[in-house]
Design a protein that fits this description.
This is (d)CMP kinase. By secondary structure, the protein is α/β, with parallel strands linked by helices. It contains 16 helices and 8 strands. The strands form 2 sheets. It has a 5-stranded parallel beta sheet with strand order 1-8-2-7-3, sandwiched between helices. The protein has a 3-stranded antiparallel beta sheet with strand order 4-5-6. About 5% of the residues have low confidence.
């Protein structure tokens, strides 16, 4: 019996050892299948993520991770959409916005299997020459469809182009509301007292978007002027965007203000973008449909993916390539293709096991 037990233990140990050898060989084989150079890994851009995606897409771990990332992304987007929709509904209920703005449908652009060059060329073609005299371009789509990359290339390809962000408008309104609380002698920021319909209407009169020249502006440019004699403020946003507007007085109160002022900001954006496009500028706006539905322009595009798993694959690739670069550390630049590929496979296993 003892001899039989010993034989069985020996066989079992051999099987485990063989399994370990097979596993290690599989890891090496997987690493050899991946084809990402050190230079490409260091780029950490859309070309890197696409290369990682192509290299790992047949891996069971990668498929599992991609599915999880896709579901998480869609869930987060839905939650964000619900929050924005609530803010827009509040604006509609207060009469700041209309329920049906009537700005037209979005032109769907399926980005599946397309490069950013192909996507942007398609969008520019749809403008039908409007970019020659100036226009407003709105872009929506799920996270992971490449909106940021597309906007960046459009900004390079279109003449006299600029990207618009609502951030400084919300920050400017927050500065006004917080200062109003101080002038009123309140103990901290009081949302209920500061953000009344009357106050918000008054705050909006203190913001002016226009083309300014010296001495108001150091160089001729479009800017937002915050001006209130009662609150003791007269500043150009470009002068305080990295100081006062980034301070704690503004930063900690932005969520409260943004939730209540979606409608006011949308109306301000329509005025601002109208002035810029009239000056021959091409204004690019990326956002959620709930908000940009109210931006007045016929040039509306929605990036879509006929197979949404690509969203998860892109997110998974981005996580893996960032982790692999960090794992290689200072040796990343000199890493051989096999070392890079082994790092990618190893980091995939770690992330998939989380």
């Amino acid at each position: 019996k003892n001899r039989s037990l010993l034989v069985n233990l020996t066989i079992g140990a051999a099987a485990v050892a063989l399994g370990l050898v097979v596993y290690q060989q599989k890891k090496k084989a997987d690493a050899r299948k991946v084809s990402v150079s050190a230079a490409l890994l260091q780029q950490q851009d859309s070309k890197t993520s696409q290369a990682v995606l192509e290299a790992l897409k047949h891996s069971a771990d990668f498929r599992k991770l991609s599915k999880s990332e896709m579901e998480d992304t869609i869930s987060r987007d839905q939650l964000d959409d619900e929050k924005l929709a609530a803010g827009i509904k509040l604006a509609v209920d207060r009469g700041v916005l209309t329920a049906n703005p009537g700005n037209g449908a979005y032109k769907p652009i399926d980005v599946y299997g397309k490069s950013v060059e192909q996507v942007t060329d398609e969008i520019i073609g749809e403008l039908k020459g409007a970019e020659k005299t100036g226009c407003v371009v709105v872009l929506v789509g799920l996270s992971g469809t490449g909106k940021g990359t597309t906007m960046a290339r459009l900004a390079k390809m279109l003449p006299n182009a600029t990207t618009w962000s609502n951030g400084n408008v919300f920050r400017s309104l927050t500065l006004l509301a917080a200062t109003w609380c101080e002038k009123a002698g309140l103990d901290g920021f009081d949302e209920a007292k500061a953000l009344t319909a009357a106050n918000l209407k008054n705050f909006m009169t203190m913001l002016t978007f226009d083309f300014y020249s010296p001495p108001l502006s150091s160089t001729p440019k479009f800017d937002i002027r915050i001006q209130s004699k009662d609150l003791g403020i007269d500043s150009m946003v470009s002068d305080i965007q990295n100081t006062t507007l980034k301070g704690p007085k503004v930063g900690k109160n932005i969520p409260l203000v943004a939730n209540k002022t979606q409608g006011e900001v949308v109306n301000f954006v329509n005025i601002a973008t109208g002035k810029m496009s009239a000056k021959g500028m091409n204004v690019l706006i990326e956002g959620r449909e709930a908000t940009v539905d109210h931006i007045a322009t016929p040039h509306r595009f929605a990036l879509t993916l006929s197979d949404p798993i690509i969203i998860g694959q892109r997110r998974a690739s981005q996580r893996i390539m960032a982790a692999a670069l960090k794992a290689l550390g200072d040796s990343a630049a000199a890493a051989t293709p096999l070392e890079v590929n082994a790092a990618l496979v190893s980091e995939l296993e770690k992330i998939a096991a989380e």
